[in-house]
């Protein structure tokens, strides 16, 4: 841990993750209650159905997320989560949200 300086990597990644999720939440009406501490993060969606669709679409895109309660998505990345992986995850969340929102309009 000391030789690789994991602790500074985690501090950097968690700030990027929370900042990115906050931006994600403000750009999508269906996303609310973005919250997190460290690499533990979550956000709420309007319904259980949308949450389930969101989870399935993330999995299809290669990202494993967890259901929380009846309407929330939890993120629990590993402590070795890199800045590139933060960006990749945020891009997947963005793509999934855009897809679900566009299908609701259609």
Short description:
The chain is an alpha+beta fold. The chain is built from 3 helices and 4 strands. Helix content is 55%, strand content 17%.
Structure description:
The chain has a four-stranded antiparallel beta sheet with strand order 1-2-4-3, covered by helices on one side. The longest helix is centred in the last third of the chain and has 23 residues, at 83-105. α1 (6-27) packs parallel to α3 and α2 packs across α3 (83-105). The model is unreliable at 6-10 (pLDDT under 50). The termini are far apart. A hairpin with a 2-residue loop joins β1 (32-37) and β2. It has 106 residues and is an alpha+beta fold. 55% of the residues lie in helices and 17% in strands.
Indicate the topology.
Layout: H1 6-27, E1 32-37, E2 40-44, H2 48-60, E3 66-68, E4 72-75, H3 83-105
Antiparallel strand pairs: 1-2, 2-4, 3-4
Pick out the low-confidence regions: 6-10
Number of strands: 4
Q: What is the helix content?
A: 40-55%
Give the termini separation: 50 Å
Characterize the main sheet: 4 strands, antiparallel
Give the topology string: H per helix, E per strand.
HEEHEEH
> With helices defined by DSSP (H or I, 4 residues minimum), what is the helix count?
3
The spatial strand order of the largest sheet comes to: 1-2-4-3
Shape call: globular
Strand residue percentage:
15-25%
Q: Mean pLDDT score, rounded?
A: 89
Radius of gyration equals 14 Å
Task: Give a quick set of tags describing it.
single chain; 106 residues; alpha+beta; 55% helix; 17% strand
């Amino acid at each position: 841990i000391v030789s690789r300086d994991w602790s500074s990597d985690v501090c950097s990644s968690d700030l990027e993750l929370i900042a990115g999720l906050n931006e994600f939440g403000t750009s999508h009406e269906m996303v609310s209650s973005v919250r997190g501490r460290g690499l533990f993060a979550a956000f709420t969606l309007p319904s259980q159905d949308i949450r389930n669709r969101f989870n399935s679409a993330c999995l299809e895109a290669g990202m494993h997320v967890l259901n929380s309660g009846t309407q929330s998505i939890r993120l629990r990345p590993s402590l070795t989560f890199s800045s590139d992986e933060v960006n990749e995850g945020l891009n997947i969340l963005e793509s999934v949200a855009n897809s679900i929102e566009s299908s609701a309009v259609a």
